[in-house]
Every structure is written in C-alpha cells, then in structure tokens.
Amino acid sequence: MKEWSDLFTPRQLLALTTLVRLSRQAGEEIRKGDDAGLAEAVVALLSMCIGKHTDMSNGLCAWEPLAECPRHLFGRQAIGMVWDFGEGNLLSDSSGAWSIQPDRMAYSLSEIGNNWHTGQAQLASADSHPLPDATAQCFFSDPPYYDAVPYSDLSDFFYVWFKRTLAACRA
After folding, report:
1. Distances in Å between the alpha carbon of 152 and those of 7, 87, 135, 165?
2. Helical packing angle, 10-32 and 151-166, nearest 10°
3. What is the pLDDT of residues 118-163, one digit of tens each?
4. What is the crossing angle of helices 36-56 and 151-166, to 10°?
5. What are the tens digits of pLDDT across the range 68-89?
6. Domain segments of the chain: what residues?
C-alpha cells in the first residue's frame, strides 16, 4: 500500500467520494440561502461524519463477530495488518452504515453542550503547568511518545477526506 487510496476498495472509494460530493452540494445549497455560517457549520459536521465513516469503511477493518459488524481501523495508534475483512453496508441502518454517523454526531454534540469557552494550547510540563488551581474545566496532557506513535500518518488518513469535503467551506 503506497497511497492512501490503497486502503480502500473501489466500492468504498466510490461511496466515500460520493459522500464528499453530496456534503459539498449541501453546503452550496445552504449558501444559496445567504447563510454562509450555517453552510460552513453543516459541511464541517458532515466532514466529521465522513471522517468517522472512513474509519469504519476501509479495506483494513476486521470483522467483530460478537456484534456482527466491522471494527473501526484505529483501535490503537497505528494502522495494523488484519487477517479478515469486515465491511458494513453503506445503505443499511447497522454499524458501518452512513445513516448512523449523523445521528451519532448529533448525540455527541448534544452531550457536550454549547457553553464552551475559548481554549488555548501551551507547551508546559504536566507536573508544573502555568494554570492557577481550579481555573480550567478540562486539562489535556499528552505523554511524550516521541516516535512511538506516528501522529502524522494517522492524521493524513483523515486529512485526505477533510481536505476534499471542507474545500466547500472556503467557497
């Protein structure tokens, strides 16, 4: 596998590129109603659904026999070799189908609420961070994996799809 497209069957590539095209068309239609902000938000949310769908619809998904559905590709921080091939039906209502992605995204967004505050990223030691006590609702720390986790490879897997979908937001 030398290119990202090699991770997908021709059927999966056709389905994913069709989802990208339809997502971009949805943004264009909403933008015609003079609501560029809504169009950008809808396309961004659809791109996240497409990202999740690529994780569940590629040639390296194993089959989960207990749940009778494909396992997502990223069960760990690497793209592993699998001995079987599990594929969901894009048009069904089961795991691996497109129809469940927007529902899952809507559920996730409803659970995290909308009272977000502006965040910031800062390089600091986890044991002596610059924040005063009780000032942050959430504090993320990333252990020093160095080269053990190929972050750029993992992000590239999704980037190729986000780039195609989110191009509509810049229109």
Report:
1. 16, 26, 32, 20
2. 50
3. 777 777 776 777 777 777 777 666 666 666 666 677 778 888 899 9
4. 140
5. 888 888 777 777 788 888 888 8
6. 4-111+149-170
CA–CA gap between residue 41 and residue 38 (Å, rounded) = 5
CA dihedral 74, 77, 83, 88 (to 10 degrees): 0
Tokens 């720390």 map to which residue? 141
Between CA 64 and CA 163 the distance in angstroms is: 30
Q: What DSSP line would sit under the chain, residue for residue?
A: --SGGGGS-HHHHHHHHHHHHHHHHHHHHHHHTT-HHHHHHHHHHHHHHHHHHHHHSSTTPPEETTTTEEPPS-SSSS----SS-----TTSSSTT-TTHHHHHHHHHHHHH-S-----------TTS-SSPTT--S--------TTSS-HHHHHHHHHHHHHHHHGGGG-
Neighbours of 58 (CB within 10 A): 22
